Amino acid sequence: MKKLTVLLPVVALLFVACNGGKEKNKSNATTENVPIVRTEGLKIAYYIQDSLKTGYKYYAELDSTVKVKQLAFQKELQKRESALRNYIAANEEKANSGLLSAFDIQKVQEEAQKRQQAYLQYQESEGMKLDQETTQHLEVLSNRINDAAKKFSKENGIDILMMHGMGSGLTYITEEMNVTQAFIEYLNKYQAELDKSIGK
Known about the structure:
There is one protein chain. With 200 residues, the chain is mostly helical. The chain has one domain (35-192). Helices cover 76% and strands 5% of the residues. Helix 2 packs across helix 3 (57-96) and helix 4 (102-155) crosses helix 5 (180-197). The longest helix has 54 residues, at 102-155. The protein is elongated. The chain starts with a helix and ends with a helix.
């Protein structure tokens, strides 16, 4: 029994030592697989996000299309709201002049509620459609810019291409790294090739 008590700590130490060795080997194996990051000779560039809105033709067209649709939606809302107000005002005037019976007033109120409900339903459904359409357009735009950026970077040997603009996190970066104009020209060329490939 005494021998067993003495042996147990020895076995435990051997077990820990073996496992420790395995963990160490495992750790070394993982470290060996991590690629070394080059710190010298990195080619870094950036483009100014706001410049794409006017320089990248597809972006400008998309922005213009979205704005036209939003303006048309706002005008239609104003038109419907104005028609509803005019209907209510005209019938209030008739009621105040004693030209409407209690039955007439009830009918007018029901019609006003019906028109208001239709207005709110239009505002919600068409507004949601416009939001969804805008989101889809922006997603396609973002995907096109990202795809073009990858190709532009590979073709020009750029290791890191950054976007400079609101929320980009870049406070300052030297003008020497600014490739905005070259990237815009590349985007327009990329867009022309994409349009050609899809038969536009």
